Amino acid sequence: MQVIRLEALSDNYIFLLYDRIQNIAAVVDPAEAEPVLKQLVELKAELVAIFNTHHHHDHVGGNQQLMQHFPKVTVYGGAEDQGRIPGQQVFLQDGSRVQFAGRVAEVIFVPGHTRAHIAYYFPPEIAGEPGDLFCGDTLFAGGCGRLFEGTPTQMLNSLDKLRSLPDNTHVWCAHEYTLKNLQFALTVDRDNTELQQRLDEVKAYRSRGKATVPSLLGVEKRTNPFLRWEQPQLQLITKSNDPVQTFARIRGMKDKF
């Protein structure tokens, strides 16, 4: 399974999953149809699945047009998003499985950004190789999503599920927010030398127009404050050793950054 990153809107990423053996494709969170259709024409591939993480328009905006071009496509989404995702046919729950290109992905229920958000985790085909996590707007490189429909407790529990995955997991998040996320992260985790180095690297990447996605989960665990609520530095700056309160206060600080 090849993952092709497509740019969309102002800062969205769409992920096209390509099976070169069968010459079929699936797409994760098509914000708009045009980049997907262009890539499919180049590959001469048929779209067979749309994997949505949540109902926001910048993740499902291309569904209907893609369905018009590929009437047999199957549209997947979270069970609790019923009625909110255009064309949804399959309603997934925590622990559900989806298949593509001979790989089986686990569905992880991760409410917080929205009440119905899900993520798709494809374990590695060979032990020791990277897996692939498509996490929508729950976990970002250097950050996490805003809490529009969920609570801090829900979001912390969701992020805790994701950080339990192997360190070498590719984190395919849906927006290019990394630079600003890390600039904020350094304000609450100043003594983190790996974070300082990562910010310098990301500045260099973005100055050349390079994408910072995917990230690696191990890097997130060491540098992303939204996965580090037990760290003394973060508890000190939030004046709390309660995990949920620490997380909530960091999220509130980021909202104002």
From TrEMBL:
InterPro entries in the cross-refs: Clx_II_MBL (IPR035680), Glyoxalase_II_hydrolase (IPR050110), HAGH_C (IPR032282), Hydroxyacylglutathione_Hdrlase (IPR017782), Metallo-B-lactamas (IPR001279), RibonucZ/Hydroxyglut_hydro (IPR036866)
Top EC class for this record: hydrolase
Pathway in which this enzyme or protein is active: Secondary metabolite metabolism; methylglyoxal degradation; (R)-lactate from methylglyoxal: step 2/2
All copies of domain Metallo-beta-lactamase, residue ranges: 11-175
EC number per UniProt: 3.1.2.6
Keyword Nuclease attached: no
Binding locations of Zn(2+) 2: D58, H59, D137, H175
Sites where the protein binds Zn(2+) 1: H54, H56, H113, D137
An individual GO BP term: methylglyoxal catabolic process to D-lactate via S-lactoyl-glutathione
Keywords: Hydrolase, Metal-binding, Zinc
Cofactor comment: Binds 2 Zn(2+) ions per subunit.
CDD domains: hydroxyacylglutathione_hydrolase_MBL-fold (cd07723)
Names of required cofactors: Zn(2+)
Function: Thiolesterase that catalyzes the hydrolysis of S-D-lactoyl-glutathione to form glutathione and D-lactic acid.
Family affiliation: Belongs to the metallo-beta-lactamase superfamily. Glyoxalase II family.
Complex formation: Monomer.
UniProt cross-references to NCBIfam families, sorted A to Z: GSH_gloB (TIGR03413)
Protein name: Hydroxyacylglutathione hydrolase
Organism: Mojavia pulchra JT2-VF2
Gene: gloB
